[in-house]
Design a protein that fits this description.
Blueprint: H1 2-9, H2 12-29, H3 40-48, H4 51-57, H5 65-100, H6 102-107, H7 113-142, H8 155-180, H9 183-204, H10 218-223, H11 227-230, H12 234-256
Helix pairs in contact: 1-7, 2-5, 2-7, 5-7, 5-8, 5-9, 7-8, 7-12, 8-9, 8-12
């Protein structure tokens, strides 16, 4: 798989940078659990805030190690890091190369368009999986010292949800990039999935009357069942990875049926 290996080889520097960001974020936030999530004064402060704001931020379970880790890292800072990386990698996979003319040169060497989509998507998935695995490893290593009390058996389920959310974001960029050949559109698609998904979840948390909005939020598919506390949510994972698979198929068909943008 020459395109796959080339994509990985050309992105190892950026992957190191994202990895250092993951390590720094978790090393900073998780050891603070005892002084933030488990602090009585913090609980009093949260109790004084509007309940809608607390649930929108996911801080209603911050007093537990699993809730704190999900709210501060997987649902906030780590979420932002992974979505930015996923959007950037997804955009570069097809639309970025097409706008620079590199994609046309690649295809001139007898490489099929479907092959381009599949191998470059696989390269994106491997990078996202690495960041997800690294996040899980850090949580596992800091679990005891930070006093989180997370069941280690639940950590892989959270990692799968984390990576699945990133993959859905990335494949949205890949699909739109394959259909349009425009970097701006591809970036907007990936960012839109992340931002709209987060916003829908936050709005749905405001009131029971808006609860149905959770059904349309990829963010809720990933985290709504609190996988760090309860284990893998197979229904949510099915939605994330299933829709990502559909978008990969759309990208393959779309790129195969149109002329490249000059």
């Amino acid at each position: 798989m020459p395109l796959f290996t080339r994509a990985l080889a050309s992105s190892w520097r950026s992957l190191i940078g994202w990895s250092l960001g993951v390590i720094a974020a978790l090393s900073l936030y998780l050891p603070l659990f005892a002084s933030i999530g488990g602090n009585g004064q913090m609980k009093d402060l949260l109790a004084s805030l509007p309940p809608e704001l607390i649930t929108s931020l996911g801080y209603d379970q911050i007093s537990t190690g699993s809730g704190y880790t999900q709210a501060t890292y997987f649902g906030l800072l780590g979420f932002a890091l992974l979505m930015i990386a996923a959007t950037a990698w997804g955009t570069a996979a097809i639309a970025g190369d097409e706008e620079t003319g590199s994609l046309e040169l690649t295809l001139a060497h007898g490489v099929g368009r479907v092959q381009v989509v599949l191998e470059r998507t696989l390269a994106v998935l491997v990078r996202l999986a690495w960041l997800g695995a690294l996040s899980c490893l850090m949580v596992f290593l800091l679990n005891d010292s930070a006093g989180l009390g997370i069941d280690p058996a639940n950590i892989p389920g959270m990692g799968a949800a984390f990576v699945g959310l990133g993959l859905l974001t990335a494949t949205s960029s890949i699909a739109v990039g394959a259909l349009t050949g425009r970097r701006a559109f591809a970036t907007a698609a990936g960012a839109g999935v992340a931002v709209v998904g987060y916003a829908l979840n936050a709005l749905a948390n405001q009131s029971a009357d808006l609860d149905a909005m959770h059904n349309f939020s990829p963010y809720h598919w990933a985290y709504g069942a609190s996988p760090l506390a309860n284990g893998a949510d197979w229904g949510g994972l099915g939605l994330l990875y299933g829709l990502a698979a559909v978008l990969i198929a759309v990208a393959a068909v779309g790129l195969s049926r149109r002329d490249l943008v000059n």
